[in-house]
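Title: Comparing notes on inverse folding

I've been comparing how different people in this forum approach sequence design from structure. To keep things fair, I'm posting one structure and asking everyone to reply with a full sequence. Here's the target:
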């Protein structure tokens, strides 16, 4: 094989441990929500500059609670900020793992496709007369543009 971007073998025990860890994350983070596409596009978003504004607002409002109406929950605002801060480093770690998993799966697929193409080319060259015509044709079907090509005799007979 000419290309080998990654060589990865994950044991059954390690996969079970990963699945268990994922289940634990799902259980411990059961309060997380799943917004619809419409909700996601409609909510007010907090960017980097807005984050500084929000932090300052919590501080200023905390120092001046008398200006707040009774239905304004400064405690909820503080809880939201604390949860926001608690999620960030964990989200960063998960994003890094996610990216590495995506890149690894991409590399594995690329290695597999490259090896398959190389093997198919070898089969076309050295597989003639070895009783592999049907196998070669089955693999070649991936490259046909309009499905399996009909033999010239079939076309002429029509």
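Reply #1:
Here's my take.
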């Amino acid at each position: 094989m000419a290309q080998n971007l990654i060589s990865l073998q994950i044991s059954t025990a390690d996969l079970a441990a990963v699945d268990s860890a994922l289940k634990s994350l799902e259980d411990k983070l059961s309060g997380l929500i799943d917004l619809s596409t419409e909700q996601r596009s409609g909510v007010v978003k907090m960017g980097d500059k807005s984050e500084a504004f929000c932090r300052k607002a919590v501080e200023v409002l905390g120092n001046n609670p008398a200006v707040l109406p009774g239905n304004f929950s400064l405690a909820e605002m503080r809880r939201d900020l604390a949860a926001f801060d608690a999620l960030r480093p964990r989200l960063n770690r998960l994003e890094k793992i996610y990216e590495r998993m995506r890149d690894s799966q991409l590399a594995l697929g690329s290695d597999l496709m490259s090896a398959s193409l190389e093997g198919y080319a070898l089969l076309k060259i050295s597989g003639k007369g070895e009783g592999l015509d049907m196998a070669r044709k089955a693999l070649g079907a991936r490259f046909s543009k309009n499905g399996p090509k009909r033999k010239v005799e079939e076309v002429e007979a029509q």
